[in-house]
Each structure stands twice: as C-alpha cells, then as structure tokens.
C-alpha cells in the first residue's frame, strides 16, 4: 500500500514524463476509473485525457517541473501546495491542489493557480 505522498509524487512526475505510453501506464495505476481533474484553464475525465493535457503542458512550458512544498491530509482528502519551476529551480508559478482519494488512488484533483 502506497502513502498519499508516494502516490502524489508519481502523479507530480507524470507532468514531466515525455513518453506518452509510460505516462499513461503510471497514471492508470494511481487514478480511479472515474478520475476527474479541474483547473482554471481545463477540465478532464480519466487518465487518457489527463495524459493528453500533460503533453500540452509540456509543449507550452518546456523544461518546467513541479516541486511539492507541503501536503496536509486527512479523511481521504489532501491539500497540496506546489511550485512550478524551470531548469534553474526558479519559481515560475505557485499553486495548490485539493485532492480526493480512495483505495490508494487519486479520484479528484482541483488545481488552484493564477489563470494563464
């Protein structure tokens, strides 16, 4: 059984996984079948749509990655604070994600950050 920190770390690294097959395989292992993702710019359902959105992100923000700065969890929910950084670890953007998880998988993620 993975902890939410371990699951979140896999999710976080998927934003940088350029191999679409590997990214989709990782997401499928950590997301529920009815997974939903929402942020100020986009909404997706399921791991395939999220994987496609991650590819679009990579094309728009080449060499950006995410660093988790804080996780607070209770009752199958967590609040995650994060920074999007460039190759020099300079903060490009900060945000928070509200997460609902069940049975060791992410069920819903709502991201909060300044709209682009």
UniProtKB/TrEMBL annotation:
Organism name: Flavivirga eckloniae
One Pfam family hit: SnoaL_2
TM segment ranges: none
Domain SnoaL-like: 22-105
InterPro entries, per the entry: NTF2-like_dom_sf (IPR032710), SnoaL-like (IPR037401)
Protein name (database record): SnoaL-like domain-containing protein
């Amino acid at each position: 059984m993975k902890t939410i920190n371990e699951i979140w770390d896999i999710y976080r690294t998927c934003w940088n996984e350029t191999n679409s097959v590997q990214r989709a395989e990782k997401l499928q292992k950590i997301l529920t079948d009815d997974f939903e993702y929402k942020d100020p710019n986009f909404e997706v359902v399921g791991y395939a749509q999220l994987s496609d959105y991650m590819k679009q992100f990579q094309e728009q923000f080449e060499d950006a990655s995410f660093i988790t700065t804080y996780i607070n969890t209770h009752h199958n929910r967590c609040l995650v604070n994060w920074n999007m950084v460039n190759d020099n670890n300079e903060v490009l953007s900060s945000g928070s994600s509200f997460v609902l998880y069940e049975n060791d998988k992410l069920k819903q993620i709502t991201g909060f950050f300044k709209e682009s």
